[in-house]
Amino acid sequence: DVQLVESGGGLVQPGGSLRLSCAASGFSHSSYSMAWFRQAPGKEREGVAAIDSDGDTKYADSVKGRFTISKDNAENTLYLQMNSLASEDTAMYYCAYASFTISPRAQLVSHWYSYWGQGTQVTVS
Prior knowledge:
Blueprint: E1 3-7, E2 10-12, E3 18-25, E4 33-39, E5 46-52, E6 57-59, E7 67-72, E8 77-82, E9 91-98, E10 115-116, E11 120-124
Parallel strand pairs: 2-11
Antiparallel strand pairs: 1-3, 3-8, 4-5, 4-9, 5-6, 7-8, 9-10, 9-11
């Protein structure tokens, strides 16, 4: 089965930057979607950014212009570059994988993703 391992979280000052990584293994699908979700205590899980096997991306309005999702196919690694961080970005960030592409309007809906990493904590303070 697909295994996802996130890293790169930590404590950062407001206005600072972090780069999250998600190392993926155990997959053999030519078409797929990968995404970053986040969840803060007491809040709903929120789709942050997604990218598919074609390189098409989608971002939540709250992070547009600040976050960038990318992938390194050779290294099977997903990234989330987070800039201009604010306290409202504080959350546990999860990497997720689906074995198919997803229509743009649904790419940030968690229902479609079957595989999840353990999460990495991002704290902006």
